[in-house]
Amino acid sequence: YSFAILVAIYLSILYYRKKNLGLLAIYSSILFGLSLYIPGMIWFSLLFIAINLNLLRLEAKILPVKIKIWSLVIFIVLLAPIGYEVFKNHSLAYTILFLPHSIHPHLLLRQFIDYPKYLFIQNNSLLTFSIGRLPLIHFAQLILIAFSGIWIYRNWKNPLTQYIYLSFCLCWILSTLSNNSSIYIVLPLLSLLVELGLSYLYSEWKKIFPKNPYPDFAAKLLIGLLAGCIVFYQIL
Fold this sequence. Notes:
The protein is an all-alpha fold. Helix content is 75%, strand content 0%. It contains 11 helices and no strands. The protein has helices spanning 2-17, 21-35, 41-51, 53-62, 65-88, 92-97, 105-120, 139-154, 159-177, 187-208, 213-235.
């Protein structure tokens, strides 16, 4: 999940900057083909397509025919094995889509409400990676995520910003459907939001002291100490 989601975000950046469209088309076909082998990852790929749909249409018109054919062939080759298995066993589609075989509305509502609690208050003891039922996000990271929310609000028109925010919402929905046992899929996005919060604070600091090297050194020192404290806390 960490690799696939971050690759999708990186491709969004490249599409936004319009770098080497031919290679981007091939990389995208590889990502979309491989995403079928990660349960639930297909939704993130479809979200990527939906957000960048207009841009993808325009670029598809100017791509050489050879690149289009190669992209389609690569996608079909990657799709063939999983497609064959789904044809033999239709229940495998539920695993690919990360959907439960049966849905109970009252349980879904409870799991949807429990999601923030597991992240920020008290984790589920059934999760094997949970230590002492600690939340996945502690106080310092929560503050940085709050600052990343300001950055998202100010940059909402950017497709990349929309993808990050909507991916987080998608993780919430998928985790709810899977009885919160897949809450770990949100970790790469939470780490990214923490980094965005740090980046936002540093950029605001630079606006106040654009050229003075001493405040710049102090800011980097504080960021290093904060990162070190977070790592040390997690180790403990």
